[in-house]
Design goal:
The structure is a homodimer. Chain A is of the alpha/beta class and about 325 residues long. Chain A has helices at about 5-10, 15-25, 30-45, 50-55, 75-90, 100-115, 130-135, 155-170, 185-200, 215-230, 240-250, 285-300; strands spanning about 60-65, 90-95, 120, 140-145, 150-155, 175-180, 205-210, 235, 260-265, 280, 310-315, 315-320. Chain A has twelve helices and twelve strands. The structure holds a DNA duplex (30 and 30 nucleotides). Chains A, B: One of its GO terms (molecular function) is sigma factor activity.
Chain lengths: ~325, ~325
Amino acid sequence: MPVTLADVAQATGLSASTVSRALSDPDKVNPHTRDRVRRAARELGYVPNQTARSLSSGHHDIIGLIVPDIANPFFPPIIKAIQARAGLKGKTVIITDVDEHPGDEVQRAQVIRKRVDGLIMVSPRASEERLHELAHLNPIVFVNRQVAGAANVLVDNADGMAEAVEHLTALGHRKLAYLNGPRRSWSNTQRREAIVAACAAQGVELVEYGPFEPQIQAGVRAADLVYASEVTAVIAYDDLIALGLMTRLAERGVRVGHDLSVIGIDDSPMSGMAYPTLTSIHVPGAEAGMTAVDLVLGMIENPSDEEPPVVQLETRLVVRGSTALAPAT
Amino acid sequence: MPVTLADVAQATGLSASTVSRALSDPDKVNPHTRDRVRRAARELGYVPNQTARSLSSGHHDIIGLIVPDIANPFFPPIIKAIQARAGLKGKTVIITDVDEHPGDEVQRAQVIRKRVDGLIMVSPRASEERLHELAHLNPIVFVNRQVAGAANVLVDNADGMAEAVEHLTALGHRKLAYLNGPRRSWSNTQRREAIVAACAAQGVELVEYGPFEPQIQAGVRAADLVYASEVTAVIAYDDLIALGLMTRLAERGVRVGHDLSVIGIDDSPMSGMAYPTLTSIHVPGAEAGMTAVDLVLGMIENPSDEEPPVVQLETRLVVRGSTALAPAT
DNA sequence: CTACATACTGCAAGCGATTGCCGCAATACC
DNA sequence: GGTATTGCGGCAATCGCTTGCAGTATGTAG
């Protein structure tokens, strides 16, 4: 039913090889022939069968992307950055959402890997050992998650976190809370350690709550814990939790940015749109995505056996309306 | 380098055909042989080459999904519903975000189509003619966009819109604004016509603004227009615009849900989390997604030449905190 | 006029699976 | 015990395209 290369060949009286070359390697064929082929292809409505092409050529011109949860606003900008960058290089991106099921990640990666030239996994949740199994299906790069022996694009939370604590102390806060993310989250470990270090360095008292899932609902739940405590400022594992927190606090009559300061992490698009606007630690997701694409593409072009590259990106605090002077005691 | 079927065949002393059957059609082979093959495959680390499998079998066990913008919170629930439903039936979903570039949609669809067994396009932005070209690459189903001659899952905005206007008039509002979505958006046309009809039916004065892009920023811009007008209630093309509107109005000291009522459309996850919570017209995205999957799968199983199915889903109003009695004049 | 590049194009061998058809042996039946 | 059945497994064709190699024609040089 569908038009194949052979049909075009027959229509033009040429061989399949020539048609193939005319279409995908124009320099190797006589300009006149090329045009004739192109015209015929167009007229017949020929669309190359990518599957066949991949099978014989060995590449797909696709890069695979695995994210934990597209509903989390942290990811879309990353995804878009990746798509844009890949598009620039003539690659298509296919996205898979594993819906926060760590168990699926590895398996999905294995399957997808067979259909793409390279893989990018953003913030994978699976255990280090399991991810390690994946390191071998090069090219693969892990974003926002350290996996020894594999290409990594990492985000260093320390700077931003230090800035955040510094910002709060400057505003007079002396006791603050950290709302933990998922217990097994690598990011949470990083962030938690960074804040503990920052608080210790700056002599601020820290209490912890959680773990909380990176969802608005969890922030709502967190709000009541915070409300009952005596902290004057809160740093949340991510913007979603911060947002849920703010909403719930507003309901209970707490004026965020006045009675209580809140800082989120990720600097997702929502943070500028909440009310009050959310002070947040900017995580360079888009840059990370673009870097990841460059790494994958690089690894595709010259697959070396050298130690895979590791890139570190930095975070910084973006101050908005949710942080203010500590209330007088 | 990679282990192939032939390798497993050689290792077991069997033929490739037998190995193939043992792996993908277990009943056609002796249990003992089957186990032997499985073990060998496991030991060798054999992973079937999906590309080859697709080429020869003609199917991919994948369904393609094209969405305009994953950053728009309206889509993730749909995407997840689609993935869940497809997963249940043993299919994988690959997502492509066309980033609101209508021009890309058709081309992307053509390309993707070659790698999947069926296609779902959610809220495509391209013109009807262009979409019509796609109708032929069956199975394909359009969600939230009517394309004559193709399978459709449509959402009827009329009910929800009527409820919304009714709700507002019951609260005493007599003059309201509609914030238009993108000019060429099919949904916007539907919604606009529905609200015009509802207002006419209920004797309410209507003013229109826009078009606005479905983004929070656009809502911010809309806010100033609304502020300067004399309406007491606003219905926005979607929740994002409504959210941006509310944020900006809050900044300007307008108490939404008191001085002014706001209704969004989509009932996206954000709406319950804003402050005040956003009254919104619930659009059954998840149901639409699931239905779409069922349609595609159905069309794959028995490709008929009959008129492709069209399913209509309904909307309803979900009242939250952003709507209240009209202020006394 | 022969000899040798040069430029295109065709041949045919894959890529790695699936699958219809056939043959063989073991089992069943009478 | 002879023949019809049935169950397994192998052969080989096929999916649609790419690509190394070889062949032919044209052009240039000697």
